[in-house]
């Protein structure tokens, strides 16, 4: 359609242009498509895919958490997000990390900074790992294979839990997880035959590292789960019926997927009263509250790969593990989900490093949600930081792509923190750690920070 205005001919392909650019183009007699106007305005249309929209909207782990909160039923979200009892440890873990302040080095060329490192002798793109989480397919039907595939894509290790919803064998066979640096987290069972069988299966299926969890003599009291009437697998109750109405996509995904089970022990144990497998109500009763250092020594003899002990270990316990031939300790209070008021693992890093020396591996988790947090742990003496909730939020948001985005986000944040601190490698960050991080004024008295070289500055 055209019209005359003086000597100017105006051609409208869009009869009602809305943008200032389009109006000015019309007044000057210029023919312009809507897409061309958008290009001039430097505007892009949002992705049509819901998964891509969510990825584009998430720039921090906190934003991934917000997305997961909107997509999950409240009881499932609280199962992941919550802690034990009054949740002092849950809150204290993050607060303890943020009590440390950076004191950067000045005028250092950081052009070629890299996060690349080795974790227990294996190359990794960053000193970051994906920690073991139970019942992952309840969070997303894609489950553990999606996490392992994302770990492979990111060049990071992934720890499969005894409480996984994918078996050791199935994960090892999954084509997407083929290149993953796979670890296995072991709970010690009352029936030692189950324990020994899991160890052998992990070895037979190419798991490189065995990690023994030692903080589950009994299950922690998770008040949110009790309040929500939460069960695994989720059951139909008045509350869950309401959830179905509020979160239909979640429940449809669960209904279309295979039944949830503890896949590594789905047949129960020999001689047990649970021939059809275990539920959340009875599986924790199978873990042995009498586990001792003798069990660690026995497992060390049975397992010929790298061995790590995981829990809130202090310096004395870390040294004892070292003396038994364990290759490293993973300092953890289970993300605040077991014994409430347990010391924040970040506060164990420096004293444990001082006790075990520079060559023994020290890992840490609980409360980490930013690359800056990871930089603090490395400066204090950790070899790597493991995250759990963070990647589960990514899994809810966008499956394997969401988990990979979380790994990439943390790695990018860490690299930026390193550059701003004036270091170009993980090794430099450890070596200069004593001068790079200090506790903020008013916080608890600082631990002595031991440099990665083993000397106390």
Within the CATH hierarchy, at the fold level, what is the topology of the largest domain?
TIM Barrel
The number of strands is 14
Unreliable stretches, pLDDT < 50, 5 or more residues?
1-23, 269-276, 448-457
- State the strand order across the main sheet: 6-13-12-11-10-9-8-7
CA radius of gyration: 26 Å
**Largest sheet entry:** 8 strands, parallel
State the oligomer. Answer: single chain
The CATH homologous superfamily of the largest domain is named: Aldolase class I
Strand-pairing-aware structural class: alpha/beta
Question: Per DSSP, what share of the residues sits in E-state strands of 2 or more residues?
Answer: 5-15%
Mean pLDDT: 86
- What's the level 1 CATH class of the largest domain? Alpha Beta
SSE inventory with pairings:
Blueprint: E1 2-5, E2 8-11, H1 20-27, H2 34-40, H3 50-57, H4 61-71, H5 74-81, H6 88-98, E3 100-102, E4 117-119, E5 122-124, E6 128-130, H7 136-139, H8 143-154, E7 157-161, H9 168-173, E8 181-186, H10 192-204, E9 209-213, H11 223-228, H12 238-246, H13 248-255, H14 280-283, H15 293-302, E10 306-311, H16 315-323, E11 328-331, H17 346-356, E12 361-364, H18 371-380, E13 384-387, H19 389-421, H20 426-431, H21 433-436, E14 437-439
Parallel strand pairs: 6-13, 7-8, 8-9, 9-10, 10-11, 11-12, 12-13
Antiparallel strand pairs: 1-2, 3-14, 4-5
Structure description:
It is a single chain. This protein is an alpha/beta fold and 457 residues long. It has 2 domains: 2-40, no CATH class; 52-439, Aldolase class I (TIM Barrel), CATH 3.20.20.70. Helix content is 43%, strand content 12%. The strands form 4 sheets. The chain has an 8-stranded parallel beta sheet with strand order 6-13-12-11-10-9-8-7. α8 (143-154) packs parallel to α19 and α16 (315-323) packs across α17. The longest helix is centred in the C-terminal third of the chain and has 33 residues, at 389-421.
């Amino acid at each position: 359609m055209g019209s005359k205005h003086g000597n100017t001919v105006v051609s409208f392909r869009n009869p009602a242009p809305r943008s200032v650019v389009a109006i000015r183009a019309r007044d000057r007699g210029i023919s312009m498509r809507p897409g061309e106007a958008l290009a001039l305005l430097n505007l892009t249309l949002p992705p049509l895919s819901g998964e891509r929209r969510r990825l584009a909207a998430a720039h921090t782990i906190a934003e991934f958490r917000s997305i997961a909160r909107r997509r999950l039923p409240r009881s499932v979200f609280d199962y992941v997000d919550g802690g034990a009892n009054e949740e002092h440890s849950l809150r204290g873990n993050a607060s303890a990390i943020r009590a440390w302040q950076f004191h950067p080095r000045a005028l250092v060329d950081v052009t070629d900074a890299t996060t690349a490192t080795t974790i227990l002798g294996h190359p990794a793109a960053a000193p970051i790992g994906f920690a073991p989480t139970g019942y992952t397919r309840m969070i997303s039907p894609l489950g553990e294979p999606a996490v392992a595939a994302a770990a492979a894509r990111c060049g990071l290790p992934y720890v499969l839990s005894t409480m996984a919803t994918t078996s050791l064998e199935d994960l090892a066979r999954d084509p997407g997880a083929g290149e993953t640096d796979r670890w296995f987290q072991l709970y010690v069972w009352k029936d030692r035959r189950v324990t020994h069988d899991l160890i052998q299966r992990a070895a037979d299926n190419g798991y490189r590292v065995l990690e023994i969890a030692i903080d589950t003599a009994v299950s922690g009291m998770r008040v949110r789960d009790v309040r929500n009437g939460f069960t695994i697998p989720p059951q139909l109750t008045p509350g869950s019926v309401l959830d179905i109405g509020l979160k239909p996509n979640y429940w449809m995904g669960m209904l279309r997927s295979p039944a949830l089970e503890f896949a590594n022990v789905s047949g129960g144990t020999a001689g047990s009263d649970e021939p059809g497998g275990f539920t959340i109500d009875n599986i924790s009763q199978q873990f042995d509250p009498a586990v001792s250092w003798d069990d660690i020594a026995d497992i060390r003899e049975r397992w010929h790969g790298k061995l790590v002990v995981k829990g809130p270990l202090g310096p004395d316990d870390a040294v004892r593990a070292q003396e038994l031939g364990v290759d490293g300790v993973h300092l953890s209070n289970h993300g605040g989900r077991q014994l409430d008021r347990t010391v924040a693992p970040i506060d164990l890093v420096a004293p444990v490093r001082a006790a075990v020396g520079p060559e023994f591996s020290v890992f840490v988790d609980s409360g980490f949600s930013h690359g800056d947090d990871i930089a603090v742990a490395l400066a204090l003496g950790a070899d790597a930081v493991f995250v759990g909730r963070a990647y589960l939020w990514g899994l809810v948001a966008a499956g394997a792509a969401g988990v990979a985005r979380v790994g990439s986000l943390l790695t990018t944040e860490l690299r930026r923190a390193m550059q701003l601190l004036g270091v170009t490698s993980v090794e430099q960050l450890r070596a200069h750690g004593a001068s790079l991080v200090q506790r903020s004024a008013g916080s608890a008295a600082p631990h002595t920070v031991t440099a990665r070289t083993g000397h106390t500055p």
